[in-house]
Design a protein that fits this description.
The protein is built from four helices and six strands. The chain has helices spanning 36-39, 51-68, 126-135, 165-177, and strands spanning 16-17, 25-26, 100-107, 111-116, 154-159, 182-185. The chain is an alpha/beta fold. Helix 3 (126-135) runs parallel beside helix 4.
Length: 190
């Protein structure tokens, strides 16, 4: 009998299967395969990952995160300089001035309507807006005594969404032409 397990015994004849019109062939046998490494008695190779490349990548990531980190102090750490004083009220107790609000409303794709809040008369153009703003002004130095707003009264231009910036600029120029000095813009209302 053969002592090696990977070779069949040559004395035992393998059964043959007869096919139709084909040459006789051997029946399926279980073959036990051993690799060349096992036949020659070699063990598994000593496989270890290359740690130097991995350490290089770790250090590059560390440097990247240190450089890009945003080190800001917490809010509680910020020093605040509080005002010093007794808390006595100021002598000037004048109420804040009421602003003169100019509202620009889109009318079509390129036009806009002008409205002054609190006044029924609506100007049809920016030249008429300038003359109406002049009528609303109280400036004894220029002989204007019929209006309620001083030249330093706040004028707020409020454009609605869709108004072209050219119209906002024209409203600003009309207020400057009427000699108002405190002109502001409100956020675009949607």
């Amino acid at each position: 009998m053969n002592t090696r397990q990977d070779q069949p015994d040559p004395k035992i004849a393998a059964p043959r299967i007869m096919g139709t019109g084909a040459a006789p062939r051997m029946a399926d046998q279980t073959v036990h395969h051993r690799s060349a490494r096992k036949r020659h008695g070699r063990d598994k190779p000593n496989m270890q990952p290359n740690l130097s490349a991995m350490i290089d990548v770790i250090f590059l990531l560390l440097i990247y995160f240190v450089v890009t980190a945003n080190f800001t102090p917490d809010e509680g750490v910020l020093t605040a300089k509080l005002p010093q004083g007794t808390g006595s009220p100021t002598q000037d107790m004048t109420p804040p001035q009421r602003p003169l609000n100019i509202v620009l409303i889109p009318a079509g794709e390129t036009e806009c309507r002008i409205r002054i809040e609190g006044y029924p008369q609506a100007p049809t153009g920016f030249t008429e807006l300038a003359s109406l703003l002049t009528q609303l002004q109280y400036d004894p130095d220029r002989g204007l005594r019929s209006g309620a707003f001083k030249p330093d009264s706040p004028v707020v231009i409020k454009p609605e969404a869709g108004v072209r910036w050219q119209h906002v600029t024209n409203a600003f120029n009309a207020a400057v032409r009427a000699r108002y000095t405190n002109i502001n813009f409100a956020q675009v209302s949607r």
